[in-house]
Design goal:
By secondary structure, the protein is α/β, with parallel strands linked by helices. It has helices at about 25-35, 85-95, 115-120, 120-130, 150-165, 230-235, 250-260, 265-274, and strands at about 5, 15-20, 40-45, 65-70, 75-80, 100-110, 135-140, 170, 170-180, 190, 200-205, 215-220, 240-245. Helices cover about 30% and strands about 25% of the residues.
């Protein structure tokens, strides 16, 4: 387990906001409105939607930035890059002050189960953890236009106040998914594990005006059996899911099994070195 980061009170915090939906997305603007009362906000977000970019970073071309002014934000930049670029650049270069918390979102659409491996929203929060900053990712379980992000933003503010007083693990991403319902219709909160989230990968073949073949990825979510404590099931049953995600992907049980299975090879190489 990592060390817990705790504040005695939330006022005076320094919070970095980012997302994968772009600088003008409704979710991040709702967060600006709600979180500005907690301290100094810094906003560093992509110039356009970067959904599905996962943990990709820009290494073979320059990362262009533009400083802008946003009401309620101490400093803001548009970044021509990925969500992870935004966090790396903000913490490593743009911001002189130490950040207390990275908040990524509010994403327009869920990030449940294996979605977290593709998600730019969750990957941005993961990069915050990698850089030593407690981080949370927040998503609204709907792709509909004109969604109301007010309640998800208010819930995020309440969650931050609670978790920062209690202590947030600096080695763990907290992934939050919120049903797209009025507050009175949300049944409550569940602390969850990652569920099963697979898609029918349907590639539609097309041709451009020059006769070159290209493919457009589509396909819906498959119906999968879920464990009772999964994030997928929680949101389907109208609960807010809160899932702690550890970045250590090691299978410790299999380590011990492999030590037994491959013992003769380990002994061979040890003997060879002797």
């Amino acid at each position: 387990m990592g060390e817990n980061y705790r504040t005695g009170g939330c006022l005076g915090m320094k919070i970095l906001l980012t997302n994968d939906d772009g600088i003008n997305a409704g979710g991040i603007r709702a967060l600006v409105k709600e979180l500005s009362t907690l301290g100094d906000l810094y906003l560093v977000a992509p110039d356009r939607e970067r959904s599905g970019t996962g943990h990709s970073i820009t290494v073979f071309e320059p990362i262009i930035t533009q400083r802008i002014e946003i009401d309620g934000v101490k400093a803001a930049w548009i970044v021509r890059g990925t969500p992870v670029d935004c966090v790396k650049l903000a913490v490593g270069k743009l911001l002189a002050e130490k950040i207390d918390l990275v908040v990524s979102g509010i994403n327009h659409g869920p990030n449940l189960g294996t979605d977290v491996l593709y998600s730019g929203t969750v990957s941005a929060a993961a990069e915050g953890v990698i850089m030593g900053v407690p981080s949370i990712a927040v998503s609204l379980n709907s792709y509909k236009d004109n969604m109301d992000f007010d309640f998800p933003a208010r819930f995020t503010r309440s969650f931050i106040k609670t978790v920062m007083r209690h202590g947030i693990d600096q080695k763990t991403v907290v992934n939050i998914n919120i049903p797209p319902l009025p507050p009175k219709e949300i049944k409550g909160i569940r602390i969850t594990r990652l569920g099963v989230r697979n898609y029918d990968n349907l590639f539609e073949e097309r041709q451009d005006p020059h006769g070159n073949t290209y493919y457009w990825l589509g396909g819906g979510v498959r119906n999968e059996e879920q464990e009772k404590d999964s994030d997928v099931l929680a949101v389907e049953e109208n609960y807010i899911s809160i899932t702690p995600i550890h970045l250590d992907l090691t299978d410790y049980v299999l380590i011990e099994e492999y030590k037994h299975v491959f013992r003769r090879y380990l002994d061979f190489f040890d003997g060879d070195k002797a």
